[in-house]
Amino acid sequence: MPIFISYSHENKDFVDALAIQLVRHNVNVWLDRWELKIGDSMIDRIQHAIEGSSALLVVLSKASVASDWCKKELNAGFLKELEEKRVVVMPVLLEDCEIPIFARDKVYADFRSDFDQGLRVVLEGVAKVTNPNLARTIGPEWHTDWSLEWGYYNGLFLMTLTYVEQAEDQPYTCLTIVNIVTNEVSNKKYEKISDNANQEEARKYIVEVIRDFVDSNDEIRPLLVDENRCEKNLVITGVDSDEEYAVNIIARRLGEDTGRDILVNTSNLLRSTYEHMNEVSAKPKQFS
Question: Where do the domains of the chain lie, and which CATH numbers do they carry?
Fold first, then answer.
């Protein structure tokens, strides 16, 4: 999902410079002057954009804190709704001004004297909601840290997903590694999606294919009975004819032996990855 920038148009030169730098760092930005077209309902489009954003950057200046339009974007009821949806609200201080109540207890990015320093703080602040390849999933009994890496080997695209699951009240950790390698047909499919949309969409597509297959095959879930790793190898068919993915799943437990077997829910792991990628992926390229 994009990063929404709330600002006064009197500060548009600064906002343009900030937005361009964010885009250069692969951050998906929603800026009214870039998105709105003639005939659009400004209120509907902006409200929809804010509701669909993963973070809200609020540019604070004398002009913005006095702007009725900015106040509408940040009224108390709407802000509460944003916070309930776990939207990250980040104040951006452009100049000395009266800080709104909602921002007084928040860490802000200070651009008053150093643009680069302020930009660094913004990038650090939005990283967790803009990186589709690295995240933490928190559940009632477990939290899972995971990462995605990719590359080419002998001309074929490959991906590796690494998961570390930690139980809140158990003395052990589960490590799961999912290796995915394309064949020639699925490799061409990856490159086609990359060209028509972007590489993030292409990687997300592969995760979706593997997730759907694992969802419908419970026997693929590794069962950990001791300290030894459990390994499963399979070939998954994609949508197109002869589109195949060689998948290698390795799982093992680390820490204390509780004497109990552990069933690794690989479908949940892949589902959480896909959902995160879908939420924060950059907007696909548009073609006429």
Answer: 3-130 (3.40.50.10140), 134-280 (no CATH)
